Amino acid sequence: MSVKIVTDSNCGYTVEQAEKLGIEIQPTPILVNGEQYFQEENLPIEKFYEYLTSDDAKVSTSQPNPYDVAERWRRILKDYDEILYMPLSSGLSETALVIKHMAETEPEFIGKVYALDNHRVSITQKQAVVDAMNMIKEGKSAKEIYDWLTKTAHTSSIYIAVSTLKYLKKGGRLTPAAAAIGTLLKIKPVLQIQGERLDKYAQVRKMSDAKATMIAAVKNDLETRFANERKAGKMTVCVAHTQCLDEALEFKEEIIKAFPDVEFTFLDPLSLSVAVHIGPGALAVACVIKY
Length: 291
Prior knowledge:
The protein has helices spanning 15-21, 45-53, 66-76, 95-105, 122-137, 142-151, 166-170, 176-184, 207-223, 227-231, 245-258, 272-278, and strands at residues 3-8, 24-26, 29-32, 35-38, 59-61, 82-86, 113-115, 156-161, 188-193, 198-204, 235-241, 263-269, 283-289. By secondary structure, it is an alpha/beta fold.
């Protein structure tokens, strides 16, 4: 059985990289003052951050048009037996559930398209794509890959240190009063994604403290929740950022030093769907299972 992977632009692969790997990217729409843009097509990342940091632009994410998704599936199924569709977590967007419903109820797609919701985004989503590609090489079917990725969906954590409260306030995740107090006190929140929403994890004053907090959080996960997977050599660590590559490179070295027995995999920009809510200057670390 031939299997084609389709993921979305939240996973961190560019369209060019995806083409070389033999996978496809379904672009995630970005809305700027109500006008729709697509990363790489008509919205370079630098331009995205120009809009995001401007007080005159309202930036948000949107869902891919199900019609466009279905048309892509129809085209692919002319050459492939099955499709594994891998969007970002349903905890961050309804896309996964909408597309999953389409795959499971439309007769032309039933048994041919497996729309996954394994609660991943950015670097953890990218690891899931790598796992899927490795399983395809072993001859596994889309259903077998879907089952493993669903079973291991919550074997991952992401911790994110935010440099400013501005974007959490703009997105309604902080009240203006709380944001004002936090800014006055120079608070830097550490957020977490445990497969679902972007939630508060801790509050610190300095980025150095935030990095120490995130390393301690990953250490706890690897020693408790994911201890068996770590012992089996099945855990990885990775770093992500929003427009602060130099700091991310330094953080990578700290992560490698903190977890010398765990494979380091990716250093990537955080997905735009996350960046909308946290702004530039954020650092993130993740631990995630590998196949």
